Amino acid sequence: MKGLVCKYCGGNHFNKTEEGYECTYCHAVYEFDDEIERKNVQRKKSPIMRLALLLIFVILVVSGLLIAGTKEKTSSSLSTTKANGMKDTYSASQLKNPERNVRIAELSLNQADIKQAKASVKEYGGEKTEAFEERLTNVQKEHDSLTKKRAKTAPKADMIIENPNAEFAVTTYYREAGFLSAYGPDFDQYSAADILRIWGQPDEIITDSQQIQKNITLEFDENNNPVSYEAKNLREQWQQGQMTWREVRAFIALIQDNSYAGYTKQFVYEKQGKPNVYFSEDQVGYVTPIVRYVSFSRLPEKYPRAGLGKYPDDFPENYGSDGLYHEK
After folding, report:
1. Taking the CA of residue 23 as centre, how many other CA atoms within 13 Å lie in the half-sphere pointing to its CB?
2. For the chain, give me the number of helices (H) and strands (E)?
3. 277-280/265-268 β-pairing
4. Would you list the domain boundaries of the chain?
5. Do residues 93 and 108 make contact, with C-beta atoms less than 8 angstroms apart?
6. Are 181 and 10 in contact (CB under 8 A)?
7. Whole-angstrom Cα distance, residue 179 to residue 38?
8. What pLDDT is recorded for position 78?
9. Can you list the positions of beta strands (E) in 169-245?
10. Does the model's pTM come out above 0.85?
């Protein structure tokens, strides 16, 4: 069921049964008249998207169509003016929950989220406006500091780093009342030749799209033991404390999305214990997040697993070590 999301595991793939729609990841069943929330997975903008926006801006300036305006509010959308004269336009539903917007900015440290949180606080902050603004001031300082310290070269010869030119965001996850945000690293600055130079010849090179799609899917057996390479690595690193719970949940969401990406080639390094690499043509699309070989923006877990539910509907107690929801 495209566009739908399971409220328990965040899965977006459903099978139609006599009772309703069954989530293929956690097997939760939704009756036909149940409302299933749409998923909103926020991704980092690519350099191509930024270039496209810049070109649009230049065209507007040259053609004399750019009109300097003041902030405009309607019943359906709100706009804030950027420094370059363009506008960020948000719907009322995006701004009406300033507490959530500030939390997401604190977790992701993503500049787009910080801008949205500021617009949200300005419109709906009310008596908490001053407190929200103080939190966002701290968020902006942390964002600017980490951006300056962002790695430009790999710490070790056999490691790769996230694209330093991609939009900055900490790898993290947020879920509340049907709203889902996930952030993960981009490695699209690397080509197949780069990966061969860094990690050597793979065990196998796969070009069959169906086999690649199966390999990138999270798979567990009937006893909830991980079967696929991606699932095994995520569980193992979380259990060993190498990844935070939010990082694991972020990668689960990203893997679910990437399983439908239609990758054209896969380098398999499983026998060598290195990350598998999935390509769109010659460009890296996804990499198994083994932290021994992969470096990305991350922070210590701000909210410990003990005492889950710091935020409404976030980290319910019956999420298992595999990052999925299980009835008890």
Report:
1. 21
2. 9, 13
3. antiparallel
4. 1-39, 67-148, 160-295
5. no
6. no
7. 8
8. 41
9. 172-176, 179-183, 204-206
10. no
Q: What is the mean pLDDT of residues 190-195?
A: 98
- Collapsing DSSP to helix, strand or coil, 33 comes out as coil
Say if CB 180 and CB 313 are below 8 A apart: no
pLDDT at 11: 66
β-bridge pairing 77-81 and 29-31: unpaired
Strand partners, 277: 267, 287
Residues with Cβ within 8 Å of 278's Cβ and at least 6 positions away in sequence, in order, are 212, 216, 258, 261, 263, 265, 266, 284, 285, 286, 287
* For range 293-314, the mean pLDDT: 63
Mean pLDDT of the chain: 77
Which residues, in sequence order, are bridge partners of residue 14?
23
Whether the per-residue pLDDT at 183 is higher than 60: the answer is yes
Label residue 73 by pLDDT band (50, 70, 90). very low
Give me the mean pLDDT over the 309-313 stretch: 37
Contacting residues for 37 by C-beta, under 8 A, at least 6 apart: 4, 5, 7, 178, 179
Residue 13 CA: distances (Å) to CA of 10, 22, 257: 9, 9, 10
pLDDT band at 238 (very low <50, low <70, confident <90, very high): confident
3-state secondary structure of 237: helix
Bin 170: left if φ > 0, else alpha if -120 < ψ < 50, else beta: beta
What distances in angstroms separate CA 36 from CA 16, 29, 201, one per listed residue? 14, 11, 45
